Amino acid sequence: MFQIDDQAQCEQGVLDALQTGYRLIDTAACYGNEAAVGRAIAKSGVDRHDIFISSKVWIQDSGYERTMASFQKTLDNLQTDYLDLYLIHMPYGDYYGSWRAMQDLYKAGKIRAIGVCNFLPDRLVDLIESFDIVPAINQIELHPFSQRHELRELMAKYRITPMAWAPFAEGQHNLFSDPTLTDIGAQYGKTAAQVTLRWLQQSDIVAIPKSVHLARIRQNFAIDDFALTQSDMDRIATLDTGKPLILDVATCKEAYRLHNISFVQ
């Protein structure tokens, strides 16, 4: 539930999603809406064990002890005693300490799976080689205009599942009216957004589309009644720009250095 600061709107959006049939809810400590997500889950009437809840530890809470404290606050906010997935939000700060804490929480049964966000090949391989547990997930910017082939190939080698944040590229490059995506969608009576989500699904990529509008929530859910052909997939492959459009992790690294946040080297 990224960029949804309005607590009531967030709560209603999650409730609408759960009533539509969604069972994966992704949030994060820094989104400031974990409590709203927790309230929606409690109101939904859906059994907790049928919902997959993912959250993240933010940079300022990196390190072993701070991650432990942040994790407990997340549990309290979400009104649950375990998480299905817990992620390091950014590859900055003492993420080694965070990973040690997350490994311990995983071994204690408090987390069903642990992973990372926005880790590029160098940081990802370093983490894998330094610890016992390989991340189950790497949540990254991934959409038709930034398909991240090199990173996905590395992740496949280690059996790390890609999870796509901003699957609609936050509307950049006019994704919702892109000629290729809309033309493909016209064959099936689907929108460019639905084609995008179906492309991700057929590429074995977990998508976490964001919306607080009931009609769009339902539309995003309705992608299991058609399938893209190989020709469709090949056409979408031509849209790749070969670079991220929203988050350049290397640039962010320099910005965080300026704010005196330490980095693991």
UniProtKB/TrEMBL annotation:
Q: Which residues bind substrate?
A: 89
The family database entries (InterPro entries) matched by this protein are listed as: AKR, Aldo/ket_reductase_CS, NAD(P)_OxRdtase_dom_sf, NADP_OxRdtase_dom
Domain of life (superkingdom): Bacteria
One of the entry's Gene Ontology molecular-function terms is:
oxidoreductase activity, acting on the CH-OH group of donors, NAD or NADP as acceptor
What are the residue positions of the site described as Lowers pKa of active site Tyr?
A: 56
Where does the NADP-dependent oxidoreductase domain lie?
A: 14-239
- The answer to keyword Oxidoreductase applying to this record is yes
Any coiled-coil regions, as ranges: none
What family is this?
Answer: Belongs to the aldo/keto reductase family.
Give the protein name, as stated in the record. Aldehyde reductase
